Amino acid sequence: MARMKFLCDAERCIECNACVTACKNEHEVPWGINRRRVVTIDDGIPGEKSISVACMHCTDAPCQAVCPVDCFYTTDDGVVLHDKDICIGCGYCFYACPFGAPQYPQEGAFGARGKMDKCTFCAGGPEEDNSAEEVEKYGRNRLAEGKLPLCAEMCSTKALIAGDGDIVADLFRSRVVRRGGRPDNWGWATAYKD
Amino acid sequence: MSATAAMNNRKKTSLWAMLIIVLAILILPLTGYLYVSMTDQPAADEQTNPRSDTWRQVRENQEGYSAVKGQETNELIQGAGQNWRQLRNGPIATYGAWLLSGVLVILAAFYLWRGEIKLTHPRTGKTVQRWTLNERRLHWTTATLFILLAITGLSLLYGRFALIPLLGYPGFSAYATAAKWIHNVLGPVFMVALFIILIKWFKNNLFTKVDIEWFKAFGGMVGDKHPSAGKFNGGEKAWFWTLATAGVALCFSGLVLDFPNFGQEREVIIGAHLIHILTAMLLMAFSLGHIYIGTLGTEGALEGMTTGHVDVAWAEQHHDLWLKEVEEQQQNTPQ
Ligand code: HEM
Ligand code: SF4
Ligand code: SF4
After folding, report:
1. Interface of B with A in 255-274 (CB under 8 A)
2. For residue B156, what is the nearest residue in chain A, using CA coordinates?
3. Which of A58, A83, A92, A95 to mutate to test the pocket of ligand 3 (most atoms within 8 A of CB)?
4. pLDDT digits (tens, 9 = 90+) for B30-82
5. ipTM of this predicted complex?
6. Between B38 and B7, whose confidence is greater?
7. pLDDT tens digits for B247-287?
């Protein structure tokens, strides 16, 4: 089985936010929620770098560890998914997540949180693949159709790559060998132990 | 003491009480920063190569720019969450469970060894008023809220391990939704009740020399001596001051968790959460002792808080100085 990973090549990312938009459109993500975002360090200063970030689908995921109702599960592909029917919107996964991935629709007074929403690696949720309920709650399930996440597919500079971790790593390594410099596979040390 | 001097004194003590509480309001929420500055040590990397500078900034969680607006969306990696996970799921959950069950075991063992502390003199049939109706209402309101908060709070911490096997995932999820809602709504109500108690009983709870003797004699829990005490004995005062410190910290850290609409950062929330569980554990452990002494542990103690009156024999044994005060007062007020 593949171990799915995301990688964003900061030497290539041009902060066009196409990945953010593609994701939002593909999954009909609710107003106010973005499953992916691009962060620019030293914005406007020579040497600025941008990185596109969403849920990294961590090994031994922190979100999973702190969830009081234990609603996360990791698929055979290493994708971290959750069950919105079980989630109580406590916010703990957002506190624990290193990447700030979990998002909440506001529900009720004083910022009370609704059910958590996050990147699914385009792999839906526990419902039947691409059933109406799954699409409604989690968006499309592209993995079930043999496709990779749309954000990476759409990336014009191929900065954002998604797929089997070994293939992603090989691709990135060959780029670094050709262009020189250090292999800054951002976030991997934090997210992946396998 | 003349009447006006006593009035002045009372004013002064309530002023002090207000001042301490206001200070606590201002200072306690800031302790989150202390936790963050302790756990968020940046890597000691002194290079000036521009590219490695970028990566260092990323590691140090420096804020960047993001077109996606929202809570802390301009940060790439936040490290405090991992520490929080380790602390909460590890030592706090483990030692918390040991603390609470340890206290229960000790109380059970104490009960088997010492039994109920009986009245040393037979009941006189004469009673004195110990708590007014309002005081009793206040006590039982706060106590009920405390117990509800403790049960719902503990459900969030231990329910995954203790209740999911019993209720199943959907069942526990439904219960946890209710528990969370109850906890979040009753928390601030509890806070109001607690503050009224702290202000109302403040002046009776200042430690005096009498309390030192009380503690030396283990409050009469061990041995046959019955140390003197005023309206509140040394142990009750210790409970009062635990509530006035840890209890106040519990309430304010709870407020930080309760109102995410102010957009407080994750690191502040995490610090508040740790303070919240630690103080909650301390108070729950202490409350078990308080409940034991007030019910099983002492003959005649519970009726004070249920009926408002205690037998003179009980008052003489447990709160002699207070009884004297009450009797003097009764003699001085013409009937
Ligand atoms: C006797 C008093 C209280 C006890 C024993 C208590 C205990 C707890 C515990 C054990 C947790 C769960 C921690 C975890 O899951 O890791 C918790 C969470 C929480 N407590 Fe309390 N608490 C008390 C009072 C309060 C008060 C006074 C407030 C508010 C003013 C409050 C607000 C909260 C909030 C908002 C949470 C987070 C719940 C969530 O979002 O899921 N608590 N409390
Ligand atoms: S990135 Fe965050 S939400 Fe995604 S698996 Fe890791 S901890 Fe969980
Ligand atoms: S918000 Fe939902 S998914 Fe996240 S920890 Fe709480 S219950 Fe679990």
Report:
1. 258-262, 266, 269-270, 273
2. A68
3. A92
4. 776 666 655 555 544 444 566 666 777 676 667 899 999 989 999 999 989 99
5. 0.92
6. B7
7. 999 999 999 999 998 989 999 999 999 999 999 999 999 99
Q: What is the separation of C-alpha A58 from the centre of its chain, rounded to a whole number of angstroms? A: 10
Mutate to test the pocket of ligand 1, among B85, B248, B257, B264 (most ligand atoms within 8 A of CB): B257
Protein residue with least CA distance to atom 8, ligand 3: A67
| A139 close to A131: Cβ distance less than 8 angstroms | no
Chain B residue with minimum CA distance to A181: B51
Predicted local confidence at residue B100, as pLDDT: 98
Which domains are present in chain B?
129-332 (1.20.950.20)
pLDDT single digits (tens) B156-183: 999 999 999 999 999 999 999 999 999 9
Residues 167-196 of B with CB under 8 A from A: 169-170, 172-173, 176-177, 180, 184
The CATH class of the A4-191 domain is alpha beta
The C-alpha atoms of residue B201 and residue B208 are separated, in whole angstroms, by: 15
Residue B125 has pLDDT above 50, yes or no: yes
